[in-house]
Structures are given as structure tokens and as C-alpha cells.
Design goal:
Elements (H helix, E strand, L loop, with lengths): L3 E6 L15 H8 L1 E7 L6 H10 L3 H4 L30 H7 L4 E4 L12 E3 L10 H8 L2 H11 L10 H17 L3 E6 L1 H9 L4 H22 L8 E5 L5 E2 L2 E3 L1 H7 L6 E5 L3 E6 L6 H9 L7 E5 L1 H6 L8 E5 L3 E3 L11 E2 L10 E7 L7 E3 L2 E2 L3 H9 L12 H4 L2
Length: about 400
């Protein structure tokens, strides 16, 4: 089994390549390895569905993770649970494949991996709900000794979960795990760029600084790999989940349903730049609701409606009656605090200008300067499995490892 370090650069997309430093960690990966600049993200373009697809090779229709959160229409936003736990994923993951091959895994803030028996060292991505202890929940959802040792060594790097401290913390934990444990699969989720874009704008100076910080973190991880016996032949792989676009107008679709007399039949879950509509009662007619909405698109910031047949073609999660996509600059809001309005977001559908994500791999045996053509996000996991020499038969995507290796 060949070892892999998998680094997620949340919110990096193809328009960011021109912002890379010539000597940065990602530029080095591209020069000395293989890159795909057009990995088409899933629908909706959200962190959790995308990260699940990245480690399963399956779309949301198969993974059953089609949003960051389950639909919880009667729960206040601050009390809503997320898809934190491994049990929510309906198909095998790369972590399972590594364990089945006799290997060991390390996961640092990778989404939907909490309470994962396949992960040897787990620092979970989870947050406390009101009344819960952040410390106790983190320990309960991950590997306690690994978490406590990481906090003792690197806790001074972070300030709660704010960025860039949290990603500095995650990178430091990852480097130490590489040096001291040399896992067969190490996966880390770096959130810095996503946070900067949400709060400051897609192409803000703060976002550019986050891109450069991520390049520095990649360099740190590369150095840890090169200096660790047993990791010198490992592959470093960088991926991303979605881009972002700026927003200036917020539309509350719950109010829209009420005004159109549809609120008794359908509820809405905002995905940011798209939204799901769920039937509230048996017999609710999605086609009739779509006909009604079709006469009020522009006033409600709706670019297009997606029928259930459309969603099936997009490999979207089941259970959604129909969906819609926002017009440019519009974000949908089902009940969020208006005071927390962001400057950029995601959650869009196919064909959006921010849909092209990253896959890059560097290491011994990788063809230098190779460019892969456009591919769906479900191709990433089987390609990683092929590079590692392990089986992931449940993956629906294509294995590109032969195109990558010499």
C-alpha cells in the first residue's frame, strides 16, 4: 500500500491558479506532479456533500449526504445538528478501504468522519450546540489521547475556531502525525480560505492572503513527509470542494412560500445559492408548486427551478421534491440571522463559474507536468485508491491513476 497525505483546500477553485506564488507549495506540486484544474463539484456545492464524495467516489444520491445538515424545519439554526458522524455516509470510504487493507488512518477536521471506527487517529470536525461542552464533545467524537496531545502541543496556535488560527493548528497536528505515526492515509481539512471568502468576499485581499497561507501549509506538510522515514515515497494530494461568488441580496424563500400559499405543502432548506423544497404532507404537488413559483422567479431571486427528474440527472440526494438556483448575487435564507449576512457564498448548481475544483498530486513515480482533463468529483476517490493500490469497489467514478503514474 502506498501512503497518501490528502489535503483539502476548502473554497479553492480554478480562478485562483493565477494567484499562486511561483515558489509556493501548490505551484511546486503542479510543476513536479499532476493536476486537474476542472474537477466538477457536486450539487449542491457545499462542503459536506463534496467532502463525502471526495472520499467515497459516489455522488450525494448514493452517499445520502446532500447538505451540511439534515432538514430540521422546526429547529432554530443554532440548535441544528450537522452530518458530523461517519454513520451518516451510506457507502464505504477511503478510510474503510485502508483499514480493510491492513493500514492505519489519521483524520484532522475532515467532514463527516466523527466516531469513525476505521480511523486510528481522529481529530473530529464538530461543534457544540447550546448547552454542550466543546471539549467533551470533541473528545467523545474523536480519539481522546490524540486530541489531548495535539491540544497540549499546539493549542496556543488557535483562538477558538477562528481563522487563520484553526488551519494553522490543523496543519501543525497533521505534520506531527506524519512525523510520529506515518499513517497510510492522512487527511486534513483546511478551512481558512472558505472563511475569508465568506466574511470578506471572493477575491478580497483577505482571501488572497489565505491562499498564500495554504501554500505555506502545503510546504510545511511536504517538508514533514520528506523528513520522515517511511513517508518519502508517499504521495501528497491536494483537493478542493467548491469555489465561491459574491452576494449582495438575501431572499427568504420561507416568506415566499407563505405569500404564494405554498407553505402548508412545502418547506425550504437553503443551500446558499440554491435551495431544496421538501413536501410537508402526503399529496403535495411539486409540479403545481413549480408552476406557481415560475410566475414569480425574478422577484424572488430565482434563476431556474429543478424538477425531481432534473435532480436525478444531477445525482442529487433523494427525498427532495424539487429545488431552485439563485440568480447572480442572490443568497437564499430560510431562517438565518440577517445580522450574519456574508459577502460571498456557494451552494450553487452545475455550470456555475465557481464549479471547477482542484486535484493535484506530487510524489515519486508521478508524471511531472501532467494535466488531466475535466472530471466529475466522484473520480477523485477511485483515483486515490488506485494510486495507493487498494480496492474501493463501491466507487462510481473513474480511476485515473494510470494516467498519473509513470
Amino acid at each position: 500500500m502506498r501512503k497518501v497525505v490528502l489535503v483539502s483546500l476548502d473554497a479553492f477553485f480554478d480562478q485562483d491558479f493565477s494567484s499562486l506564488s511561483p515558489d509556493g507549495g501548490l505551484s511546486r506540486m503542479i510543476r513536479e506532479g499532476c493536476v486537474c484544474r476542472q474537477v466538477k463539484t457536486v450539487f449542491p456545492a457545499l462542503t459536506y456533500p463534496a467532502h463525502v464524495t471526495l472520499i467515497t467516489g459516489c455522488d450525494p444520491v448514493d452517499t445520502q449526504v446532500g447538505q451540511n445538515q439534515p432538514w430540521q424545519p422546526d429547529t432554530e439554526n443554532s440548535h441544528r445538528v450537522w452530518y458530523w458522524e461517519r454513520r451518516h455516509i451510506a457507502v464505504p470510504t477511503l478510510f474503510d478501504a485502508v483499514r480493510n487493507a491492513g493500514g492505519k488512518n489519521c483524520s484532522v477536521l475532515w467532514p463527516v468522519c466523527c466516531k469513525n471506527p476505521a480511523t486510528t487517529w481522529l481529530f473530529p470536525e464538530v461543534h457544540p450546540l447550546p448547552g454542550e461542552s466543546a471539549v467533551l464533545k470533541t473528545l467523545r467524537f474523536g480519539t481522546p489521547l490524540f486530541i489531548l496531545d495535539s491540544e497540549r502541543r499546539f493549542g496556543s496556535l488557535r483562538n477558538g475556531i477562528s481563522e487563520p488560527g484553526l488551519s494553522n493548528y490543523a496543519a501543525a497536528i497533521t505534520c506531527r502525525a506524519i512525523r510520529t505515526k506515518a499513517p497510510d492515509l492522512t487527511a486534513v481539512h483546511l478551512i481558512d480560505l472558505d472563511e475569508m471568502r465568506h466574511h470578506h468576499g471572493t477575491f478580497s485581499p483577505e482571501a488572497l492572503e489565505a491562499i498564500h497561507r495554504n501554500e505555506d501549509r502545503l510546504t510545511q506538510i511536504q517538508k514533514a513527509m520528506e523528513e520522515t522515514p517511511g513517508m518519502k515515497d508517499a504521495l501528497l494530494i491536494a483537493v478542493s470542494d467548491h469555489g465561491q461568488s459574491d452576494i449582495s441580496r438575501t431572499v427568504n424563500l420561507t416568506d415566499c412560500l407563505k405569500q404564494l400559499g405554498l407553505a402548508d405543502d412545502f418547506g425550504v432548506q437553503s443551500n446558499g445559492e440554491s435551495a431544496y423544497f421538501f413536501a410537508r404532507r402526503e399529496g403535495a404537488d411539486p409540479e403545481k408548486a413549480m408552476e406557481t413559483l415560475a410566475g414569480h422567479l425574478e422577484e424572488n431571486g430565482i434563476l431556474r427551478l429543478y424538477s425531481r427528474a432534473d435532480l436525478d440527472r444531477m445525482h442529487a440526494v433523494r427525498g427532495v421534491a424539487f429545488a431552485c438556483e439563485a440568480m447572480d448575487q442572490v443568497v437564499f435564507d430560510d431562517c438565518l440571522d440577517q445580522n450574519k449576512r456574508e459577502k460571498a457564498t456557494h451552494g450553487f448548481g452545475p455550470g456555475h463559474r465557481a464549479e471547477n475544483c482542484l486535484f493535484a498530486v506530487r510524489g515519486r513515480g508521478v508524471r511531472k507536468g501532467t494535466e488531466l482533463p475535466s472530471m466529475p468529483m466522484r473520480d477523485v476517490a477511485p483515483t486515490i485508491a488506485g494510486l495507493m493500490g487498494i480496492a474501493l469497489p463501491s466507487a462510481k467514478g473513474k480511476d485515473h491513476s494510470r494516467e498519473i503514474l509513470e
